[in-house]
Each structure stands twice: as C-alpha cells, then as structure tokens.
From TrEMBL:
Full protein name: Oligopeptidase B
InterPro entries: AB_hydrolase_fold, Pept_S9_AS, Pept_S9A_N, Peptidase_S9_cat, Peptidase_S9A, Serine_Peptidase_S9A
Residue ranges constituting the Peptidase S9A N-terminal domain according to the UniProt record: 20-428
PROSITE patterns from the UniProt entry: PRO_ENDOPEP_SER
Organism: Ancylobacter rudongensis
Pfam family membership, one: Peptidase_S9
UniProt keyword annotations, A-Z: Hydrolase, Protease, Serine protease
UniProt family annotation: Belongs to the peptidase S9A family.
Length: 705
C-alpha cells in the first residue's frame, strides 16, 4: 500500500558519480556501484567521526534531512509517543542492591537524568549512600556516553570503570579512589571494557583490540605503574577468535574465554597468584564449545565444573574434572545431555549447582543439590515469559536472584533461597502512568514452516483488539548466532498495542528457542530457513485472521536487519513496511573483506566466501544488497550508526542507494544515520525514546494508524 505519497518530501539526495568497484571471485564478477560509500579510513572514523570524508558526510546528512522531512509530517505523533513512553518510566528508578561483603552496590537514576549513577551503601542499611560515579555529570557536554564494566576492588577501596565516548566500543579504563572521589593516574585507553581484579587488589587485567578492532590481547596492569609497561598475559593467534574476561563464582580464577560462533577455549588466571601464567583447560578443537566454573572441594577434590557440547551433546551437558588434570580426558558427566533441553548457563555455589535451561521454547531454573544429586525446578505458570538469573556475589551463600516478566507482566526481581526454596520479591517494575495486565493478552502460536517445522510466535495485543483479520501488526525477528528472543515486558511497545496493533515475535530458526538444532538449521547453507520461517510466521497470522494481510510491519536489527533485507526481496507483498536497524545487509562484500572487525569471527556463522566457492554462491543468493531487483518494495526505514564497528554504516547506506535506483514503486524509503553513535544507537535513556518514537511513527503511518 502507498504511504503518504502525496505528501512525500523533496527528492532524495542525488548520489555523486563514482566508478563502480569491480572484482572477481571463483570465476564470478561482482560489480558494486555504491562502494564509494565505504570510508577508506574507517578505523580513524571509529575514533573520531569528524574524519569522515566530506563527500560521504554530505550524502549521509542529505539522507538524514530527507528522512527528517518525511518524519516531520508525523511530528505530533512522535511527540505524543515520547510523552507516553516516558510516562511509563519511573524516572528516579533504582536497581535492587547487590551485597558484596560490607557494602551493597546498585545503580539509580535521578529525575530527568539520562545516565545511571553507580552507588553503594553499607550492607543491610537503607541510608548512607555513596555515589561512586555520576553518569549525568560524566556525560555532560558529550555527544555520546556509555558505561562499560564497573568493578569494586576486593578490599572495596577502589573502583575500576570503563566508558565509551564515541559509540565505537573503544573504552577508556579508569580507577577511582572511592574515599577521595578522584581517579588515579592509571588511565588505559582503547580497551574492550572488560575489567578483572586480582585477589590482592594490586593488579587489574584488561583487553586491548588489534588493528582491525578485534579483542585480542589480555594485559596485566600493576596499580601505580605506567600503563605503557603493562604485561601482555595472553595474545590470541587466530584472527577469527574474540577474547573476553570473566570470573568464577568462587572468585579463585579469572577466565580468559576465546572463541568464535563454533569453537571455544578457556584459560584460567589464578587471581591469588596474578603473576602466574594462565592455565589452559582444554585445547581448542573445531566445533567444541565449553565454559568453566570452579568448586574448591567437590566430592573432596578441587574441581572444575564445565558446561560443554562434547561427545555429541548438542544441547550441552555439565561435566566435572579435577583442577589438577582439567583436560577432556578427565571430564565426567554431572548433568547428562538431553536432546531438546538446551543448557543456557550455570553457576556453582558451595552446596548447589544452579542452571538456566530452555525446553519447548520456555526457560526454567533448575537447582541441584551437589551432595546427593537431587533437583528441583523453579516453576512459572504463564504461557510465554522471559527469565534470567544472577548468582550475585559470594560462593558460600544459598541465595540467587532471578528476574521474571512476560509480555503482559512487568519485570519482577526475586531473591530465591536454593536450600529452603523461599522466594522474596525485591522489586516489581513500576509503570507510573498505570498498567493493568488484564487489559492485554499474550499468546503463543505455532506457525507451519518448510520441512514440517513449527515456528513459535509470541503475541501481545489489547483484550479489545478485534481478531478478525483487520488488525495491523509489528512482526519482530532476529534468527542468528543462537540467540533467542525473550517474550518479556516492554513499556514502549504498549504505544503500538494500545493503538490496535498486534505485537508479534517470530522465534525463527537461527535462534535456539527449540534447542541447538534450531540454531544449526538456520546458519551456513541452511540460512534461508531463517527467512522462510519469518515469512511463514507472517502468513500464518494472516491465515488465522489475527492480522491484516496488507498491514504487517516487519522489524529487525543487526543480523535481524539482514533478515529484513532478505524478506523484502523474497516476499515484498507480505509487508506494508520494513524497519531495519543497523542492518547487516551487505553480507557478501563484508564476508569478503577480512580486514573488517567481525569478518573472520563470522565465517563459522555464514561461511567463508573467500576460500569456499559454495559459500560464495550461497551467500550471494540471499545477501540483501546483492539481490535488490526491479520490483515494488514495502516502505522502508533503515537506521545506522556512523561509528558502528559491528555493522558498518555503509551497509545500510549502500542498500538504500541500490533500492532507490531499482525499486518500481513510490513508497517512501528513509535512511537515518546517527552521526554520533554506534551499534546501540543513542546512549541516553530518553534519547533512545526519540529513536523508538521515530520507528513507531513510521509503523503507525505505514499501517494507516
């Protein structure tokens, strides 16, 4: 359907004349007419957006002006949406304090504040707050500001914290003297944001990126010394592996986790002997994934507790091994593999093992008593919901914390005693403007898809919305990297639902909602299952007369944005509009460029078209940019971030340029590039509402609401 065609803004910007980029791979010729939009100095632009070439900046800003001209037609609606969404936010909200020794740490917002304050107070007290970091004050005068990691030292005298001030995910590490309220001179620039303290609080571990923006080098810093003298502890030799830092619940070991989407390797840092070299648990093996926890006396032996897919355990199992001989030859099953029951995460307490798992598309918590192996579940009644858990601080305790919500139920934070099974509600999300769950309905449908598969679809709609085939719909999807889309609560989406929209989440292949097989069936050569599943979900909603056949707005971001580009090419008539946030749409060209940050680590997900002719052909057949053709397209709203290191700004820019040149309809196509942010968009919580309001205004206008 046409959308505001009579009131469209002036013509979109004319693309400057540039010669196409012509290359050959595997005997095939690629012609890229819009390659000029890729900045040759993209690494420098990540650090300083002002270094973007003038012709590219001019074109992006002209696109922004064109998009704003269209969005200006709906300025009153956008303002109303922001007012509604802000009215549902408790502006002076705070997190539930987490006790660590003598203090309880928490974050809070002040009324009208954009950024969090990181605070603490004496454990068990309700007064005596100390503001460790004031996000609003630190962000003042900056176009972008985002906290990364923030960790107190073991003796609680110091606070290590990281910030990104460009959206490029280069974080600066600082160390604050809590009593003095000032930072030490130990400043480290361009880290990944991860921070890890040694047990004596005299050393910090952190990660630096390589020239291609990949996290590759683990360093040890001794407090009070020049960071230029920091010691390289670990260097990742494989450009396809990323490195991260973590810590066991026992606090004995730091974890250097290395891996891609298919393989992992873990090294132990003895935090009590921080000068020792790290110890590798098990050498990397293609396809072998594992994660590590530690128990100082499991069955009388200091042991590792390992979650792994070894020995064909596709949905993972949990094994143990002696710390003295941690390799795979010594792994013994503790929680055996059960096909279809995906183990998501696990933590070890002194007397209990707590795991988060998912079966039949729904998550649950399972508590195992280590002494006798007995287990119990933490049960929930709703048809679809979201669940997460936080082990908090401390190994000796019996209490964990979990967060529960559904598409109709605001988030609840509970403390749970794994021994007594007592639950204590610590917080229920407040909606200041009011929220009555009885006014809304959530449902779970199963949409028939290719190969006899059934795709779960979670729905939210107002109880008075007629399900007669007339309702508009926002259909959200992702479908990549094994990530599942939670059926949780969102105050923002109520602005659509209250206007008669059905909000739907398609739990398509490429995620793990139905186990690891669900992921495997949506990657590499089977990637097109992701797209056909999403289309099947939309078609099922129409066939069941839940939504209107010409009023579906598809929405996805990042790899989900690639999904948006693919379904726009494959089934444009099913969708009235497409919202693609930071969309990974130039898949083939990106996977052919091994200098980009994510390309080598992404080959296990998509294939390596440089060396593999079949992978080249497979990706070329679905890559959204490469398959734009002369046909009618839905209305399209694409959003990008100039300093985005994950999906570079030129992907959506090139896609939009190619769509403009090829499409045969007069529906609007909008490109908005945030010139001061990266992958996550605006950093302030109210600034993010402005971006959401743009998306929802586009959806409402496109659906005729």
């Amino acid at each position: 359907m046409n959308t505001d065609t009579a009131a469209r803004p002036t013509d979109a910007p004319l693309e400057p004349a540039h010669p196409p980029l012509i290359r050959s791979f595997h005997g095939q010729t690629l012609v890229d007419p819009h390659a000029w939009l890729r900045a040759d100095n993209w690494r420098d632009v990540m650090r300083d957006p002002g270094l973007l070439a003038p012709d590219i900046r001019t074109w992006l800003e002209a696109e922004n002006a064109s998009a704003e001209a269209w969005l200006a037609l709906h300025a009153a609606l956008r303002a109303q949406l922001v007012k509604e969404m802000r009215g549902r936010i408790k502006e002076d909200d705070s997190s539930v304090p987490s006790t660590d020794g003598p203090f309880a740490y928490f974050t809070r917002f002040r009324e009208g504040g954009q950024h969090p304050l990181i605070c603490r107070r004496p454990a068990g007290a309700i007064a005596g707050e100390t503001v460790l970091l004031d996000g609003d004050a630190l962000a003042e005068g900056k176009a972008y500001f985002q906290f990364g990691d923030a960790q107190q030292s073991p003796d609680h005298r110091l606070f290590a914290w990281t910030t990104d001030e460009a959206g490029s995910e280069y974080y600066t590490l600082r160390i604050r003297d809590i009593e003095a309220g000032t930072d030490l001179p130990d400043l480290v620039a361009e880290t990944t944001g991860d921070v890890l303290w040694s047990a004596d609080g005299a050393h910090l571990f952190y990660i630096r990126r390589d020239a291609e923006h990949r996290p590759s080098f683990v360093y040890r810093h001794r407090l009070g010394t020049d960071p230029a003298q920091d010691v390289l502890v670990y260097e990742e030799p494989d450009k396809g592996f990323f490195v991260s830092l973590g810590r066991t619940q026992s606090r004995r070991f730091g974890l250097i986790s290395c891996g891609d989407h298919d393989t992992s390797e873990v090294w132990l840092l003895d935090l009590e002997s921080p000068l020792d070299a790290p110890l590798r648990v098990e050498p990397r093996e293609p396809g072998l994934r594992y994660g590590v926890e530690h128990h100082p006396a499991l069955s009388g032996v200091e042991s590792l507790v390992i979650e792994t897919n070894a020995d064909g355990a596709e949905d993972f199992k949990i094994v143990t091994a002696p710390l003295s001989s941690p390799g795979r030859a010594h792994w013994r099953d503790l929680v055996p593999h059960k096909p279809g029951r995906l183990l998501l995460s696990a933590t070890v307490l002194r007397d209990h093992l707590v795991r988060l798992e998912r079966e039949d598309g729904l998550p649950r918590l399972v508590v195992r008593t280590l002494a006798d192996g007995t287990e119990h579940e933490v049960a929930f009644a709703e048809e679809a919901y979201s669940l997460g858990f936080d082990p908090g601080h401390g190994f000796e305790k019996t209490e964990i914390r979990f967060t529960y919500s559904s598409m109709t139920t605001p988030a609840e934070v509970w403390d749970y005693d794994v021994a007594s099974r007592a639950r204590t509600l610590r917080k229920r999300q407040e909606v200041p403007s009011g929220h009555d769950p009885k006014r809304y309905v959530t449902r779970r449908l199963m949409a028939p898809a290719a190969g006899g598969e059934l795709v779960p679809v979670s729905l939210l709609f107002a109880a008075d919305t007629p399900l007669d085939g007339s309702a508009p719909c926002l259909l959200y999807g992702y479908g990549a990297y094994g990530m599942s889309m939670p059926s949780g609560f969102s105050t923002a989406r109520l602005s659509l639902v209250d206007r008669g929209f059905v909000f739907a989440i398609a739990h398509i292949r490429g995620g793990t909602e139905k186990g690891w097989r669900w992921y495997r069936e949506g990657k590499l050569a089977r990637k097109t299952n992701t797209f056909s599943d999403f289309i099947a979900a939309g078609e099922h909603l129409v066939a069941e007369k839940i939504v209107a056949p010409d009023r579906i707005i598809a929405h996805g971001g990042s790899a989900g944005g690639m999904l948006m580009g693919a379904v726009a090419n494959m089934r444009p008539g099913l969708f009235a509009g497409i919202v693609a946030e930071v969309p990974f749409v130039d898949v083939l060209n990106t996977m052919l460029d091994d200098t980009l940050p994510l390309t080598p680590p992404e080959w296990p997900e998509w294939g390596n078209p440089i060396t593999d002719a079949q992978a080249f052909a497979t990706i070329r057949a679905y890559s959204p940019y490469d398959n734009v053709t002369a046909q009618d397209y839905p209305a399209i709203f694409a959003l990008a971030g100039l300093t985005d290191p994950r999906v570079t700004y030129w992907e959506p820019a090139k896609w939009v340029a190619k769509l403009r040149a090829a499409k045969t309809d007069d529906r609007p196509i909008l490109l908005r590039t945030n010139m001061e942010a990266g992958h996550g968009g605006a950093s302030g919580r109210f600034d993010r509402l402005e971006e959401t309001a743009m998306i929802y205004a586009f959806a409402l206008a496109t659906a005729g609401r």
